[in-house]
C-alpha cells in the first residue's frame, strides 16, 4: 500500500530563551567523538480517539519543544561545537531525508496527520551526541512538558551534561570519524516473541551446570543468530564447499549503572560501549547453540566492562577487547575464512509506550528502517510482556531466515497485523 505524503511546512525551532554565553560551546566527550554519524528513526502513532484536542497538535509540539530546548541547550539552534561549527539545528515537521550534510542536524521531528484523524510523531535522533537512553529521557520530559503546558522544569528533571567530564575528549586529529553508509537491498522486518515463547527459549538455553538463567536479550540474541546460521548453512551446503566461518557478536552495554557512582537518570550524553565475542559457526548452527555455551560467552564479554575497563576508557586508552576481535577477524579473512558480524542492541524496558504528549499513550511505535546489514534491536511489545525483534538483513538472506521452521515455531505471526517496515524519516 502506498501512502501519499504532502509536506506542509518546514520550520526551525529555537529555545524559549537564548542559550547563556557560558553554555554556547558544548564539549563533545570521547564517546561522542567515537560514535558514528548514525541516526535512530522513531515513530509514535496515535489514533483518532487519543488525538481529539482543542489545540492543534502542531502548536502543542512546537511550544513544548521550544520550552524544553531551554534546558537541553546542546540541541538548541544557537549552540556551537568545540570547533565553532554549528552542530545543533533542531527542526520540526521537515520532509526529512538523510544526506551528506545531515550529520549537522542533531534532532529532527516530523508531525504526520492522517485523514482518519490519527497522527504520527516521527523523530530522527543522532547518535553523535547521545545514546538511546538519554534520548528517551529527553522525549519523556518533552512529552511531560507538552501535556502539562509547563515552560520550566523542576531541578530533579533537568538534564546533567557530564559526559565530557567523565570521558575527556581526545584531539580530533586522533579520532577516526566514521559515517554509517546505508546500503541498498537491505530489508528490516519485525519478529514478535510473546512472553510464553521467550520463557520457553530461556528454558532451552538455561545453564543447568551453573544454574544460570539467561536474560531475555541473551536468549533472543543467541536464538536469532543461530537460526540465521542454520538457514545460511542449509542454503550454502550444496552450492559451494564450506569454508571457515566465524561470527562476531557485538552487544551495546549501558554504562549508566556501571559507573561509580551510577549516573543520574537524567544524565544526557553517550554512555554506552560495544563489547564483542568471536564464535565459530559450528558452535552456532541449530542444536549446537544450546550446548556450546553461547549465552555464557556473551555474558562473559559484557562482564569485561568492569571498573578496570572503565578506568582505562576514561583515560582515553584503546579498547583492547575490540582490538583483539578486529585483528582476529582480519587474520581469519586473510586465511580465506569468512567473518559475519552482528550488532545487537536492546531498547527493552525503555517504556516507549508511556510517551504521552497530551492525547494519550501511543497505540503503536516503530523504530523505522535502518538499511544496515545484520542489525538486531529489541523493543518491548505494547503489552510489555513480549519483545519485538527488529532484524535488518540483505533481502536474499532475509528470505532464507524468515523461512526457517524453527524460527517460525517461536514467532507470533500477525501480532500487530504487520511484520515489516520500509519507512525512513
Automatic annotation (TrEMBL):
Q: Does the keyword Transferase apply?
A: yes
The record ties this protein, via InterPro entries, to: CAT-like_dom_sf
Reading the lineage from the top rank, the first entry is Eukaryota
Sorted UniProt keywords: Acyltransferase, Transferase
Instruction: Please provide an example of a Pfam family that matches this protein in its UniProt record.
Output: Transferase
| MF-aspect GO terms | acyltransferase activity
What protein family is recorded? Answer: Belongs to the plant acyltransferase family.
Question: Under what name is this protein listed?
Answer: Uncharacterized protein
Amino acid at each position: 500500500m502506498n501512502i501519499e505524503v504532502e509536506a506542509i511546512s518546514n520550520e526551525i525551532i529555537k529555545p524559549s530563551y537564548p542559550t547563556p554565553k557560558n553554555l554556547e560551546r558544548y564539549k563533545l566527550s570521547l564517546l561522542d567523538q567515537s560514535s558514528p554519524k548514525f541516526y535512530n528513526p522513531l515513530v509514535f502513532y496515535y489514533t483518532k480517539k487519543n488525538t481529539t484536542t482543542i489545540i492543534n497538535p502542531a502548536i502543542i509540539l512546537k511550544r513544548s519543544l521550544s520550552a524544553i530546548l531551554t534546558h537541553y541547550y546542546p540541541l538548541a539552534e544557537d549552540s556551537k561545537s568545540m570547533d565553532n561549527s554549528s552542530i545543533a539545528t533542531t527542526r520540526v515537521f521537515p520532509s526529512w531525508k538523510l544526506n551528506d550534510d545531515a550529520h549537522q542536524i542533531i534532532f529532527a521531528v516530523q508531525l504526520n496527520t492522517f485523514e482518519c484523524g490519527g497522527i504520527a510523531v516521527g523523530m530522527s535522533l543522532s547518535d553523535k551526541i547521545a545514546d538511546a537512553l538519554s534520548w528517551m529521557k529527553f522525549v519523556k520530559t518533552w512529552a511531560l512538558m507538552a501535556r502539562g503546558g509547563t515552560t520550566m522544569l523542576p531541578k530533579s528533571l533537568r538534564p546533567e551534561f557530564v559526559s565530557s567530564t567523565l570521558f575527556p575528549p581526545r584531539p580530533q586529529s586522533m579520532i577516526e570519524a566514521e559515517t554509517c553508509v546505508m546500503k541498498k537491498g537491505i530489508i528490516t522486518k519485525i519478529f514478535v516473541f510473546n512472553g510464553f515463547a521467550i520463557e520457553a527459549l530461556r528454558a532451552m538455553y538455561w545453564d543447568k551446570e551453573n544454574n544460570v538463567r539467561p536474560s531475555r536479550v541473551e536468549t533472543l540474541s543467541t536464538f536469532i543468530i543461530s537460526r540465521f546460521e542454520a538457514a545460511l548453512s542449509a542454503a550454502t551446503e550444496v552450492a559451494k564447499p564450506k569454508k571457515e566461518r566465524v561470527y562476531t557478536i557485538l552487544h551495546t552495554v549501558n554504562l549508566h549503572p556501571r559507573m561509580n557512582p551510577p549516573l543520574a537518570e537524567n544524565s544526557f550524553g553517550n554512555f554506552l560501549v560495544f563489547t564483542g565475542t568471536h564464535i565459530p559457526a559450528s558452535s552456532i548452527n541449530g542444536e549446537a547453540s544450546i550446548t556450546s555455551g553461547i549465552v555464557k560467552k556473551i555474558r562473559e564479554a559484557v562482564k569485561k566492562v568492569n571498573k578496570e575497563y572503565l578506568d582505562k576508557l576514561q583515560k582515553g586508552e584503546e579498547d583492547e577487547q575490540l582490538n583483539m576481535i578486529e585483528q582476529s577477524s582480519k587474520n581469519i579473512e586473510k586465511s580465506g575464512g569468512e567473518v559475519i558480524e552482528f550488532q545487537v542492541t536492546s531498547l527493552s524496558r525503555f517504556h516507549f509506550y508511556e510517551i504521552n504528549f497530551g492525547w494519550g499513550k501511543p497505540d503503536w511505535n516503530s523504530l523505522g528502517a535502518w538499511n544496515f546489514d545484520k542489525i538486531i534491536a529489541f523493543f518491548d511489545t505494547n503489552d510489555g510482556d513480549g519483545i519485538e525483534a527488529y532484524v535488518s538483513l540483505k533481502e536474499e538472506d532475509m528470505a532464507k531466515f524468515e523461512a526457517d521452521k524453527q524460527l517460525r515455531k517461536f514467532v507470533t505471526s500477525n501480532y500487530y497485523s504487520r511484520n515489516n517496515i520500509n519507512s525512513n524519516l
